[in-house]
């Protein structure tokens, strides 16, 4: 456990905040510091083919130690932290044998991490927690994932009796600003499938995420002196308002959960002459996703028709761009990779928590780039803020899951499993 704690702290005390306004990759120079440290560390523990490319993607290989053919698998994490909350000067606190009560993160500002509000804390009574000092995020998202992958590789190198095939690992920059997969060289990585170690609480296993689109709408108007405006003025802000009102009620992020999709207005700014509206569309179900996009076009058309005479040209201009898709479609044909992860967890007495992601992951992008890539827990809670914490025991379990998946991959007959996966798919179609 001490090994995990020391390693984790050595990563989170390096600031790697990414920046959505930067055009470079990595988006911030400081991400190089951790990337280069990881290269040295991977070499030091005995990994092979340790590489870092021009965009700071770190890759390495653990060669197979068996004679027979085993599919190459991969593990992936990201080393940047979110720009939503500061990641500079992280001062982790270690709470041993957590007693189930309030944790005072910062006495000066009276910042308390309390199980009254964060009920998940109670399941970690008696465990060792790593928290912030109340002033920064922790960076367990996703330096817990990196810690786990490095520790698991080190364990496999030190314990050659555990048999495994070839394992590839990759650490990426800029996941938090949605660009972690952009320059990921899937071919160079060369794995048949991979897992991102980037989920939250122990047991999480995720292979379904949203289908996602972004919508940009411009409403035009006509400004006329309000005293003489009757029949002449067109107020673009009111048209935008009318548009929003035609979206289905109750289908917003704050009113939905589970598999329920939504429309989410993210930006609205305007004047009489011109109003700009941005929204995002999310749905796990492809048919419903397409319907949502259709509805936006329908409302656009209707308003354009209503104003056709008065305005002379289209008064609403709508642009919809798909952002990412549900990885389920790419994971289902190889569903044994989920079975494998589930089996690994169960054999370690971890209850698999399979639930749909209400967002996207780098794994979903990678899945569409040819690398099926579900997501496994890394152990942390309350990501992207000062209440972030991670139980060391959960990180230890994640290490064991990685080792177990490696082991199971070397002993599983995949031809049988592949048949089963295909059978499952056929059944579902019926
Ligand atoms: Zn993450």
Automatic annotation (TrEMBL):
Binding site for Zn(2+) 1: 78, 141, 198
Catalyzed reaction equations: Release of the N-terminal residue from a tripeptide
GO MF annotation terms: metallopeptidase activity; tripeptide aminopeptidase activity; zinc ion binding
CDD domains in alphabetical order: M20_peptT
Annotated ranges, domain Peptidase M20 dimerisation: 207-307
Biological process (GO), any one: peptide catabolic process
Purpose of the protein: Cleaves the N-terminal amino acid of tripeptides.
Identification of the protein by name: Peptidase T
């Amino acid at each position: 456990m001490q090994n995990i704690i020391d390693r984790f702290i050595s990563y989170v005390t390096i600031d790697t905040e990414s920046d959505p306004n930067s055009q470079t990759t990595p988006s911030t120079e400081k991400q190089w510091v951790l990337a280069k440290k990881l290269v040295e560390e991977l070499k030091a523990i005995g990994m092979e083919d340790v590489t870092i490319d021009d965009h700071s993607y770190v890759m390495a290989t653990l060669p197979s130690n068996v004679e027979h053919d085993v599919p190459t698998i991969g593990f992936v994490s990201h080393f940047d932290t979110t720009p939503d909350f500061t990641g500079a000067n992280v001062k982790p606190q270690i709470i041993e044998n957590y007693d189930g009560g309030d944790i005072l993160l910062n006495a000066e500002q009276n910042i308390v991490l309390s199980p009254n509000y964060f009920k998940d804390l109670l399941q970690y009574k008696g465990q060792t927690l790593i928290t912030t000092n109340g002033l920064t995020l922790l960076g367990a998202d996703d330096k817990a994932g990196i810690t786990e992958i490095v520790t698991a590789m080190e364990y496999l190198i030190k314990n050659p009796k555990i048999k495994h095939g070839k394992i590839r690992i990759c650490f990426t920059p800029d996941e938090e600003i949605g660009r972690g997969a952009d320059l990921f060289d899937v071919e160079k990585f060369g794995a048949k499938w991979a897992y991102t170690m980037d989920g939250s609480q122990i047991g999480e296993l995720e292979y379904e995420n949203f289908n996602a689109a972004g919508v940009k709408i411009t409403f035009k108007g006509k400004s006329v002196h309000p005293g003489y405006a009757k029949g002449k003025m067109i107020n673009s802000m009111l048209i935008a308002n009318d548009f929003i009102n035609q979206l289905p009620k109750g289908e917003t992020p704050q009113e939905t959960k589970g598999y329920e999709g939504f429309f989410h207005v993210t930006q609205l700014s305007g004047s009489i002459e011109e109003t700009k509206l941005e929204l995002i569309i999310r749905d796990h179900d492809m048919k419903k996703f397409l319907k949502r996009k259709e509805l936006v076009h329908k409302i656009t058309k209707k308003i354009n028709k209503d104003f056709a005479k008065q305005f002379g040209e289209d008064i609403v201009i709508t642009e919809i761009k798909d952002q990412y898709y549900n990885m389920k479609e790419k994971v289902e044909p190889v569903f044994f990779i989920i079975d494998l992860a589930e089996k690994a967890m169960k054999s370690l007495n971890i209850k698999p928590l399979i639930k749909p992601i209400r967002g996207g992951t780098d794994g979903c992008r990678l899945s569409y780039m040819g690398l099926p890539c579900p997501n496994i827990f890394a152990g942390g809670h309350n990501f992207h803020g000062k209440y972030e914490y991670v139980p060391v025991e959960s990180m230890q379990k994640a290490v064991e899951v990685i080792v177990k998946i490696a082991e199971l991959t070397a002993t599983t007959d995949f031809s049988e499993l592949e048949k089963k996966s295909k059978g499952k798919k056929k059944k579902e179609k019926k």
